[in-house]
Amino acid sequence: MPRLKHSIVAELPAPETLDTGQLAQDCAAGACDLVVVLGPTASGKTRYAVQLAERLGGEIISADSRQVYRGMDIGTGKDLAEYGAVPYHLIDIAEPGEQYNVWQFQQDFLKAYADIRRRGAVPILCGGTGMYINAVTRGYDFSERQPLSAAREAISREGFPQRPFFIGTLVSRELRNARIDARLDARLQGGMVEEIRGLLERGVPAQTLISYGLEYKFVTLYLQGELSYAEMRGKLAIAIHQFAKRQMTWFRGMERSGAVIHWVQV
User: Fold this and answer.
1) Which residues lie closer than 8 Å to 80 by C-beta, 6 or more apart?
2) Looking at domain 20-172+250-265, does it have CATH number 3.30.1240.10?
3) Percent of the chain, pLDDT > 70?
4) What's the CATH number of domain 174-243, 1.10.3720.10, 1.10.287.890, 3.20.20.80, 3.90.190.20?
5) Using one digit for the tens of pLDDT, what is the confidence trace for 7-30?
6) Eight-state DSSP code of residue 15
7) Which of 26, 80, 113, 201 supports an S-S bond with 31, CB 3.0-4.6 Å?
8) C-alpha–C-alpha distance, residues 200 and 26, integer Å
9) Closest C-alpha among 41, 77, 92, 31 to residue 191
10) In angstroms, rounded to a whole number, what is the distance separating the alpha carbons of residues 21 and 45?
């Protein structure tokens, strides 16, 4: 009789109660020079980062590989109204169809980071693109011409944050998946298909939109007639669930590499 394979579900990290008053003191004293709010999709990190920025006198730098593009709003979940009066950076800085990469993000981050600190505000990096977060908190030197997957140590480089404080937004898998499904349906009903159809009509190549993944991939395939609406919605929901798992795997990998992430229940 063949042996059954059982998938092992990794334990979620234990949540902490964060002392934001102490964090504010650490930022003021220079013990922390960058607050990083990370987490999987639908974990509430943007809302948490905004609340933290209001408490700390901070400004948010987005670490989202797709929110850099103008006109890609619903599919990327920009939710700009959520920021209120909190200033934000590195959103809507490139045209859809352009090839924006992690090296460009690193350079744009350094400019925004220096500007925020020069004005005496607290920089808060918020997002779920782990590669972008690592590129600026571990000081990647792209002149080495090594792939990002190559093993490398964090290096101290001028202009980069030296004392980042990592906060992870934590939700149960069940709640996260329920949020993903509800959010997906809201976006589909709120014009996401029309948004992506408009990008195609503006001349953004279908293959470029597909390369952006998730919403842009599956909705484009639907608009091209390769998927029915029900197939698109079903496959997309599964893909987003899997993406959230991969994000958590990346962040737990950061911990194994030495990053201390303070996980908070949101």
Assistant:
1) 73, 88, 91
2) no
3) 92
4) 1.10.287.890
5) 445 678 899 999 999 999 999 999
6) P
7) 26
8) 47
9) 77
10) 19
